[in-house]
Design goal:
The structure is a homodimer. By secondary structure, chain A is an alpha/beta fold. The first copy, chain A, has a single domain, classed as TIM Barrel, CATH 3.20.20. Chain A has helices spanning 30-42, 70-79, 97-110, 125-128, 139-157, 215-224, 235-251, 273-285, 289-300, 327-339, 344-354, 364-376, 392-407, 420-423, 432-435, and strands at residues 2-6, 47-50, 85-91, 115-120, 165-168, 173-175, 185-186, 191-192, 207-210, 227-230, 260-269, 358-362, 382-385. Chain A is globular. The interface between A and B is large, with 75 and 75 residues.
């Protein structure tokens, strides 16, 4: 079983920063992030992860909205950790492949083989407008670019043979020039000569992670992803998603064990059930509906005025086909509200807590049991742990939930390997020079 | 007097990696960089600096050619240093302003106000071919883009008022939305809505550094740069450059003290003159002429076959007007070779050592005297220290040259401030919201 800690300043619940014990400046604090990464590493987590988008995500009043750029922040965290993997989100729509391939190779070198890349195509017009566009590119076109971006990036990472550097002082030859070569990529989106200006890194390629669950997203995951983050609100949906991804990986000619599926869960931990439920309720009470309502309206592509806090969602919403943004997120929200017959206020409470991920409020034993139940029933290879409140949520999870899973033989008590790929049981990509 | 350490794995001399004591893998080593930064910080240097270009710089045989991306590497160095400034080179031609403004703001937040940006437009067709172009953009057009890039970046850094974040838990207001605003930039090169997704950083803007010495470069420096790195082979040329930059800054309406001029010097330190000269000669003996000849031919835009190692440069070389790359570097090399009537072999030796910067081989006392002489005679506000061999060159400089300058009252014995701007005596940019 694998665990990733999804880093998120004071926690994944949007009102977590308002709790008396929360540091509302944690989003910009190196020390706060170092503490989270250390707690996760002491608990032998596989990795920590940072989400990202090159845009101000929401009204800056709502919660801490300043976000340190992930590759920069994780480079700093590499220094005060030794074994845990470091997964940064970066956009294929708003970066150049040479620059991004190089930053991830740099992080992999610096961290001794612990870099991971959560590949996103970045939904939303607001982000597009920070990069010279009027509107976001079409969903399909973002994925076409992402596919070619990955072709370029992997060629660049493979542009030095593993044995290129010889450092022969006597002969005055640092690297063998016949073991470093240009990539001469020519495609509809990119023309890149290469080679990369970095030797092949400890992992060769960073661990490739993906989280989109649309049809395009799942096809992309089947081709490229080695780990998949996903939001699935029920066991049945998790099982269906898990089977679907593994099937698509096989259809793409890959070993299904080389695509690790990690549903997100939002634990709200109390020493008693009552304590957990009280914390959960306190958090929901602290949500300011004005922000949440505006964001829900934006996701649904409707005017906020048509949303009544104490009524269900309107009947006439756009279909997923009309959504060019985060398609799977849209469908998840609409289906959930309709299935459970939620009012807008109830829906906002649930979204504010886990943003569509499964929230568990309970005792450590209840949470360990649920995790094991998912794991034993074909719903997950591990979990993306998204504590509602940080750092207390990961401290409690590490101290009280992880030992239960270790006692049951489900989770490691020590790291076996040194690289992120080793933690997830994934192979190091072959040297393309050796294949010739 | 100010000192910057120009980080460069085993040293600035191209053959330094071949010395018996050099670690030929230092270019990829976090520990090696941490050591250099710590030695410089213990000696109270203002800053450390990393050059960069998004391309493989030279034949990978010649010297360690893998380069970790500077913002990522300096984020890691921020963790193991406390006071020294961290200056990263990044290209305005091959980045998007939103991404780069954000990475520097992130580094400034993470380091507590120690980030600096060496702004480059990136010469060379090889780099252009990693970004979808056939050839490098024209020199003038690169500087036009750079100018607008800086307009966008500074607007983004100023898109949050200093007092925007209130973190009012009781009211449920994290930041005041009327103190965060879009920039709505519309120009010939960029359209960027903003705001940045980060509050204003400790220094507000990273220290802006520039190093091009062409006419376009000096005009750009006069408008934007707060520190200028420059290669000047003689005292007279340094004085002329110094006066020129200060004059241009005044003409641009700026305080000349707010543009700090830092010529590069390459110290080769021995306890005796003879020891220094022997190290210098040993380094030159280790240069492999095949690589240096190819690079010289490329800089001069001539066929390598027309260069005879034991003859002067050919008479019919292109004029600076025809050079679209590093214009000032081209002129410096040609003038130098002709003035000193150097053979190609002699020129290669001098370039391999200091790449056009002033090389001083001597005792600590001789080096301290030369530095003082430049400083006292209007040639420099400080120096970009580029040891021929690292780490030994900076260890010797810190242990033997710095104390002499401290005894003379020329260099600090303790840091007064905490930010990079404070070290260089430069103001923090005003809050644009306060100006309204």
């Amino acid at each position: 079983m694998h665990f990733n800690l999804f880093l998120h300043d004071t926690g994944h619940h949007e009102a977590s920063w308002r709790l008396p014990g929360s540091d509302p400046y944690a989003n910009l604090s190196l020390e706060a992030h170092q503490h989270l990464a250390r707690v996760a590493e002491d608990a032998k987590f596989d990795s920590v992860f940072l989400a990202d988008s090159p845009v101000l995500w929401s009204d800056p009043g709502r919660r801490p909205s300043g976000k340190l750029e992930p590759t920069v922040l994780l480079a700093a965290l590499a220094v005060t950790t030794r074994r845990i993997g470091l997964i940064a989100t970066a956009s294929t729509s708003y970066n150049e492949p040479y620059n991004l391939a190089r930053r991830f190779a740099s992080l992999d070198h610096l961290s001794g083989g612990r870099a991971g890349w959560n590949i996103v195509t970045t939904a939303g017009d607001a982000a597009a407008r920070n990069f010279g566009l009027d509107d976001q590119p079409l969903h399909r076109s973002r994925y076409e670019r992402a596919d070619e971006f990955l072709q370029v990036a992997t060629k660049l990472w493979d542009s030095w043979a593993d044995d290129a550097v010889v450092a022969d002082k006597a002969a005055g030859v640092h690297a063998r020039h016949d073991r470093v070569r240009g990539i001469e990529h020519r495609g509809p989106w990119f023309r890149v000569d290469g080679p990369l200006n970095l030797p092949r890194s400890p992992q060769a390629h960073p661990l490739l992670v993906q989280a989109g669950s649309s049809e395009d997203g799942k096809e992309f995951a089947a081709r490229w992803a080695e780990a998949v983050f996903t939001a699935q609100p029920t066991l049945a949906e998790s099982q269906a998603f898990y089977a679907d991804i593994k099937r698509r990986a096989v259809a793409a000619g890959r070993d299904p064990d080389h695509v690790v599926v990690l549903p997100g869960i939002v634990p709200v931990i109390g020493d008693t059930e009552r304590e957990a439920r009280e914390l959960d309720a306190e958090l929901d009470r602290l949500i300011a509906p004005r922000y949440a309502l505006a964001q829900l309206a934006q996701t649904l592509r409707v005017d906020p005025a048509v949303l009544d806090l104490d009524a269900p969602l309107p009947a006439d919403l756009p279909g997923e086909d009309e959504i060019e943004g985060a398609k799977s997120r849209y469908t998840l929200i609409v289906d959930w509200a309709r299935r459970d017959n939620l009012t807008v206020r109830q829906l906002i409470g649930k979204l504010g807590g886990g943003r569509g991920h499964r929230t568990f409020a309970g005792t450590p034993l209840q949470i360990a049991d649920t995790i094991q139940h998912y794991f034993d029933n074909g719903a997950a290879d591990g979990f993306n742990i998204m504590p509602a409140v940080l750092p207390s949520g990961i401290e409690a999870f590490a101290a009280k939930v992880v030992p239960l899973l270790q006692e049951r033989g489900l989770f490691r008590t020590e790291y076996d390997g040194t690289t992120l790929r080793e933690h997830y049981g994934l192979p190091r990509p072959a040297d393309r020079f050796a294949l010739v």
